[in-house]
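Lab manual, section 2.4: Encoding a predicted structure.

Procedure: take the sequence of the chain (74 residues), apply the prediction step described in section 2.3, and record the output as structure tokens. A sample record is shown.
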Amino acid sequence: MPYDKTAELPDGVKNNLPQHAQEIYKEAFNSAWDEYREPEDRKGNASREETAHKVAWAAVKKVYKKKDNSWIKR
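Recorded output:
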């Protein structure tokens, strides 16, 4: 279930991340969705969606960090 636009992202992403971080999340999620299509490409019994969300959050955390209740650029 790749995302076409940031408005489709989960509420936890839309309501917490700045717009640029949402773009990073969306692009990383969509890329991981394609990359981890096959179960043998994923760790353990993780679903394709779960893996894509983990990759997306990791991509965001490379550029942003959480300070207090806000996400700020590193």
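Check your result against the sample. The chain has three helices and two strands.
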